[in-house]
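Note to self: keep these together.
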Amino acid sequence: MSLSADKYNKINIADKYIRQEKIGEGTYGVVYKAWNKITSRVVALKKIRLGPTKAEGLTTTTLREISILSRTDHKNIVKLLEYHHHRSKLYMAFEFCEMDLRKFIDSYQNLRLRIPANIIKKFTFQLLSGIKYCHSHGILHRDLKPQNLLIDAAGDLKIADFGLARQLSYSLRPLTHEVVTLWYRAPEILLGSMYYTMSIDMWSAGCIFAEMSSGAALFRAIPFLIHRDT
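Structure:
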């Protein structure tokens, strides 16, 4: 899998940014809210710990995310601004978004309020617009969930986290069924199918729409399905 050169910065981009606060952390690394000293732009700066056993020291999920986001250009897909690979670290600078949809839904749940219908319609339209763009370019996201949908300062939704995304093949090549967080998985994936299409993203989108409408996940984990998943 080749990486796009147009967003690669030969200068260590970590030196271009002043880290303001940590906004996320996981097995992949850490995400900071950072300020560009040159442009004064606020970004989300992801620092990734590189795996020593992968090609070029980069994990497959990281390679996929860089490769796909370097080729996408849509207002409802988060923008990768630049990246830099230096020794044991990879830095990726993304446009900054205020929160994710999970936190947005929870903020209404905590107040025991329903999300207004006009906001649900707006977010659903923007989600489907982003999915349509991906599918029209042969990209399966495969991990759509509220945590991977970001909301910017203008209140617009953007699809993020393309680490599990794949380029769609029309040759019916088998794909792994270990994708999509359990509550948002399509039935064919839960049943172990390795032959699936764009419909799995649409199923996830439907689950997300239902969760925004009701305030609760549509399909919570069922014991026998959890057993099958492990």
